[in-house]
Amino acid sequence: MKARVHLLRRHCRQFSALAPVPRPTPLRSLAPRATTTAASRPQSALRYPLSQRCPVFEGIRNQSGVAAVLAEAAQGADSITNESIISRMDPKELGRIKNIRNIGIAAHIDSGKTTATERVLFYTGRIHSIHEVRGKDSVGAKMDSMDLEREKGITIKSAATFCNWDRKDPLTGEENKYHINLIDTPGHIDFTVEVERALRVLDGAVMILCAVGGVQSQTITVDRQMRRYNVPRISFINKLDRMGANPFKVIELMNQKLKIPAAAVQVPIGTEEHLKGIVDIVRMKAIYFEGLRGIQVKETDEIPESVRELANEKRSVLIAALADVDDEIAEIWLEEQTPTVEQLRAAIRRATLALKFTPVFMGSALADKGVQPMLDGVIDYLPNPAEIKNTALDRKRDEMSVALVPYNSAPFIGLAFKLEESNFGQLTYIRVYQGMLKRTGFMYNVRTGKKVKVPRLVRMHSNEMEDVDNIGAGEICAVFGVECASGDTFTDGQQSYTLQSMHVPEPVISLAIKPKSNNQSANFAKAMARFQREDPTFRVSQDSETQETIISGMGELHIEIYVERMRREYNVDCITGQPKVAYRETVTETVTFDHTLKKQTGGAGDFARVAGLIEPTGELGDNEFVNGIIGGSIDEKYIFACEKGFRASCDKGPLLGHRVLGVRMTVNDGATHVVDSSEMAFKTATQQAMRKAFKDARAIVLEPIMRVAVTSPAEFQGAIVGLMNKRNAIIEDTEVGVDDFTLYGEVGLHGMFGFSSVLRAATQGKGEFTMEFLKYSPALPQHQKELIEKHEKEMKEKEKEK
Ligand SMILES: Nc1nc2c(ncn2[C@@H]2O[C@H](COP(=O)(O)OP(=O)(O)OP(=O)(O)O)[C@@H](O)[C@H]2O)c(=O)[nH]1
């Protein structure tokens, strides 16, 4: 089919460009044929007796309604389709859920996420005036509620809000009030976990791109994250008012660099300072934004002469792109017909939900243009909660994946995806997947087995909240006073289901930290505990030798922000050490060991003999301990001590004292003394054996390799390449734009400390860079040698001090 479509493309493009704008006919059905993870098993699965496949649900066969749907969903994630769930939904509930959208806004730094969200809140009547990010009125945008965010003009924490969008469908004339739960996420890579957790619980997303910057490094990261969680998206090219804005170049880059086909559903009427409005090329209408802050949307059939040809051309491109991903449009095309507006709109929705396509909207949030049609796009093309297949794991059935049913009348299942300390205690954000959450009701924490009361239930509006009595399936809310960890599943106590949590990246840098004065220790400890609870990428540990507190995070900015928050929010000034790279250690060869610990010089002695081998596991992941003892040469209780010794050695590797990755130890022989052997002796013997064998097994130091993107005006190209070469970077790609230059490469993290000031100096403050963890790789031999020598010297000095 695809090949034929390609062959006919040129001919059809011509045809479509000349075709008259079709007259809208009543919309028949906008229901998608396929959804993101829509199951393929047909409903006829119900013909088989349930008890044959799932004894748990034996007896439920005769039940009808919700029980039958739940039983079917419990057969496995693929046993039921979203259409089947929706078709049997109570009409009132269906009416409610069809009008809900849970969406996130994600993009590269400074693309205008917060600025666009501010407009969304204004146009939906949630706020009554617009304040800009770094605006002259010093108020700051609603969603950047922290002082630090307003001062720095960056989003640090994702913020949730909700709003209602009254919409009259232009094709059917149907009027509806849509309830939109919206999460604005930070753009900076150091706060990427905020994007991860938002995407984990949202049903759809708006990806914002800059009309000048195009596809930037962080756009690629966000693209990856959206794919990781199967999140359908619409795209919005912002900043059309900027000099050099070129939305079609951006779409070309999207098609080249992102792994999802994209095509415009709008074209601009003018760009830069001539931006006047946009043309909706699905319905072929010109749209202008008038009145205070563009609040009045004026639509006309008169497309300005200057963009008429462009609009026709881009409409053909849109149809061609859809024909590649949607059979219905492909067929229409092969028959040399032009799809109707209804067919086009339905195809865009189908393809978007099936993750095969992203429709591209455009405008300028700052110039108050294009935001309302983008909101209409959220309604038209992003899924309601019932159109997304959400799954859980059944702990009673070997973690089998089962489907969740977004009915209010189903048993409650929710995920705590974000925690925040507030003046009223811990605030826990929950996405309700199934059933209802009620104020003063009870829920059970699956991890701890504890029953907890829900004393207060709220909807969040940035840092403000609105009390509610209950929250239905498919919605997002927050509860107060519930002790839990981020990623915990809550149920009604009857279910054995758990929800998979989000991906948490490993921290890559760490530094020693302590309060300046001792009387701040209590506050310091409080702050540490809170930050750790709220942010899974911020870790706190204690160095067992120096007793120093070590904090680890995703980058210099991440750590800097926490140190600053400690000062502002807890009145604790801190002294920090130099940032350190989180190196790792591993072995590259298999070696055997046979080690005896023997201290038997009068009185109670120590005796333990351990023998076996250590080897690489083949993956730089968890370490493994294997009990290979046959015949009882080491007693079972001492084997456990051996494992403890091995794990302790892995926490503090023999080369540098950094964590060990990917090592397997097998203990297959040993000896025990009736009197002198003890758990302690076996633990110590294993540690000693590990220390020696580790080095014999050609141990190496691994360092975090970062994926780096550096952008600056083109004149600094040479300087940037020089800076990266000096850091032994592998330069993967360079891009020279009209007047800017971007370099993509991989660099060892240790070379990147202090890079922001070096870059600033080399580019007159005009260069920018982003970096994110890519992988662990062996450090260069010379660097390894230096690190090991330095570590050994420090250890000797410490020894002397003792
Ligand atoms: N010219 C122009 N500037 C814009 C537009 N939208 C936003 N900006 C400016 O771009 C800067 C960044 O905007 P934000 O809304 O903070 O961007 P963001 O994506 O939320 O930023 P982070 O969350 O820090 O990544 C601000 O100075 C805005 O005023 C636009 O449409 N046109």
Q: Which terms summarize this structure?
A:
eight-stranded antiparallel beta sheet, Rossmann fold, disordered N terminus, single chain, Elongation Factor Tu (Ef-tu), domain 3, 802 residues, alpha+beta, 38 strands, binds guanosine-5'-triphosphate, 21 helices
What's the pLDDT, averaged over the residues? 83
Q: CATH fold name of the largest domain, please? A: Rossmann fold
Helix/strand structural class? alpha+beta
The main sheet comes to: 8 strands, antiparallel
Molecules bound to protein: guanosine-5'-triphosphate
> For the record, what CATH class of the largest domain applies?
Alpha Beta
Describe the fold and architecture.
By secondary structure, this protein is α+β, with helices and mostly antiparallel strands. It folds into six domains: 2-53, no CATH class; 94-387, Rossmann fold (3-Layer(aba) Sandwich), CATH 3.40.50.300; 391-498, Translation factors (Elongation Factor Tu (Ef-tu), domain 3, Beta Barrel), CATH 2.40.30; 509-582, Elongation Factor G (Translational Gtpase), domain 3 (Alpha-Beta Plaits), CATH 3.30.70; 588-698, Ribosomal Protein S5, domain 2, CATH 3.30.230; 701-783, Alpha-Beta Plaits (2-Layer Sandwich), CATH 3.30.70.240. The chain has 21 helices and 38 strands. The strands form eight sheets. Strands 18-17-23-14-15-22-19-20 form an eight-stranded antiparallel β-sheet. Strands 2-3-1-4-5-11-6 form a seven-stranded mixed β-sheet, with helices on both faces. β33, α17 (636-651) and β34 form a beta-alpha-beta unit. α1 runs antiparallel to α11 (305-325) and α11 crosses α12 (327-334). The radius of gyration is 30 Å and the shape is globular. The protein starts with a helix and ends with a helix. Bound molecules: guanosine-5'-triphosphate. The site of guanosine-5'-triphosphate has 25 residues, from α6. Residues 27-44 have a biased composition (Low complexity). Belongs to the TRAFAC class translation factor GTPase superfamily. Classic translation factor GTPase family. EF-G/EF-2 subfamily. GTP binds at residues 107-114, 184-188, 238-241.
